[in-house]
C-alpha cells in the first residue's frame, strides 16, 4: 500500500466535505459545475480522482452520464456503495497519469478535483493535465483543483507553531514556498504556477476561483454558525470567490478551463 492509499484508507474525506466548513468548498465547486453543464443531460462527464464520489455520484443521480476514475480501492468501494444501479455511471480504478483507456475527445466536462494535490513534479502535473485535456472535447470544460501555498504557511507553519520543525526539515524555500515530498501527502502551489501549467496546455482559462476563501481560517466559527448565518457566509463567499486579490489566500482553488 502506498502512502497515499494508506492516508485515504484511514481519513474521512466524506466527513470533511459534509461538515459545514467543507460544504463551502463543495457548494462552490458544484455551482461552477452546474454552470458548465447548464442542465444538458447529454453532456458526458469524466471525474479523475473521484474519491468517495461526493461529486460524481451526485451528478449521476441527477441524470448525467458519468465516468469516475479513482486510484484508491478503499475510496472506490465507498463510491460504489452509494449507487443503486439506476445511475448512468461507470466507476473504474485508475491513475490520473494514464487515461489511455479513453479515446481522444470523449468528454464534455472533465473534473480533476484531487490528483493535483498529490503530484510533486512539473512533469507529472503536466502529464495528468495533458491526459485530461486530451480526453476532453474541443470547446469542452476542464476543472482542476489545487492546494495553495500561502494558507499552509499561515495556518500550519505559524498557526500550529511548526516554524522550527519546517526550518530544520528544510521544508521551505527562501521565498517561503512549501517543499513537498510524497510522505508529506499534499503539494502546494501559487497562482503563477497554475498559470504556467495552463500555458503548456491547449486550453484557455475562464476563471480561477477561491473555492473556500477565508473559510478554513475561521473553521470553528464556521462550524458553529446557525443555518441562517451560514447561508449569509455562503452568500458573501460566492460574491467574493472570484476576486483575484483573495485567490492565493484560499486553501483550495478551482481552475476552470476551456479546451481550444
Low-pLDDT runs of 5+ residues are none
User: What portion of residues belong to β-strands?
Assistant: 15-25%
N-C termini distance: 38 Å
The helix content, as a percent range, equals 40-55%
* Integer average pLDDT: 94
Largest sheet report:
8 strands, mixed
| SS elements, strand count | 8
Sequence of secondary-structure elements? HHHEHEHEEHEHHEHEHHHE
CATH architecture: 3-Layer(aba) Sandwich
Overall radius of gyration: 18 Å
Kindly give the count of domains: 1
User: What is the SS-derived class?
Assistant: alpha/beta
**Total number of helices:** 12
Classify the fold: give the CATH topology: Rossmann fold
What does this structure look like?
- With 260 residues, the protein is an alpha/beta fold.
- It has one domain (3-259): Rossmann fold, CATH 3.40.50.150.
- The protein contains twelve helices and eight strands.
- Strands 1, 2, 3, 4, 5, 6, 7 and 8 form an eight-stranded mixed sheet that branches.
- It starts with a helix and ends with a strand.
- The model has no long low-confidence stretch (mean pLDDT 94).
Descriptive terms for the model:
12 helices, eight-stranded mixed β-sheet, 42% helix, 20% strand, 8 strands, 260 residues, Rossmann fold, globular, alpha/beta
Give a brief outline of the structure.
This protein has twelve helices and eight strands. Strands 1, 2, 3, 4, 5, 6, 7 and 8 form an eight-stranded mixed sheet that branches. Strand 2 (66-70), helix 5 (73-81) and strand 3 (89-93) form a beta-alpha-beta unit.
Amino acid at each position: 500500500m502506498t502512502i497515499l492509499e494508506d492516508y485515504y484508507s484511514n481519513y474521512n474525506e466524506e466527513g470533511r466535505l459534509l461538515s459545514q466548513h467543507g460544504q463551502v468548498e463543495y457548494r462552490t465547486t458544484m455551482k461552477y459545475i452546474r454552470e458548465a453543464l447548464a442542465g444538458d443531460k447529454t453532456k458526458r462527464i469524466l471525474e479523475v480522482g473521484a474519491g468517495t464520489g461526493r461529486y460524481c455520484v451526485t451528478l449521476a443521480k441527477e441524470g448525467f452520464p458519468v465516468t469516475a476514475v479513482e486510484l484508491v480501492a478503499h475510496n472506490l468501494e465507498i463510491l460504489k456503495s452509494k449507487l443503486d444501479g439506476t445511475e448512468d455511471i461507470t466507476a473504474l480504478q485508475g491513475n490520473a497519469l494514464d487515461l489511455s483507456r479513453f479515446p481522444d475527445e470523449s468528454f464534455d466536462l472533465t473534473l480533476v478535483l484531487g490528483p493535483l494535490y498529490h503530484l510533486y513534479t512539473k512533469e507529472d502535473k503536466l502529464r495528468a493535465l495533458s491526459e485530461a485535456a486530451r480526453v476532453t472535447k474541443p470547446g469542452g470544460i476542464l476543472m482542476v483543483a489545487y492546494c495553495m501555498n500561502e494558507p499552509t504557511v499561515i495556518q500550519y507553519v505559524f498557526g500550529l507553531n511548526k516554524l522550527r520543525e519546517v526550518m530544520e526539515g528544510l521544508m521551505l524555500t527562501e521565498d517561503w514556498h512549501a517543499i513537498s515530498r510524497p510522505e508529506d501527502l499534499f503539494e502546494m502551489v501559487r497562482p503563477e504556477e497554475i498559470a504556467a501549467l495552463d500555458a503548456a496546455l491547449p486550453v484557455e482559462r475562464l476563471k480561477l476561483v477561491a473555492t473556500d476563501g477565508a473559510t478554513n481560517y475561521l473553521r470553528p466559527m464556521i462550524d458553529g454558525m446557525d443555518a441562517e448565518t451560514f447561508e449569509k457566509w455562503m452568500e458573501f463567499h460566492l460574491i467574493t470567490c472570484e476576486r483575484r486579490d483573495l485567490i492565493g489566500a484560499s486553501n483550495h482553488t478551482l481552475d476552470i478551463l476551456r479546451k481550444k
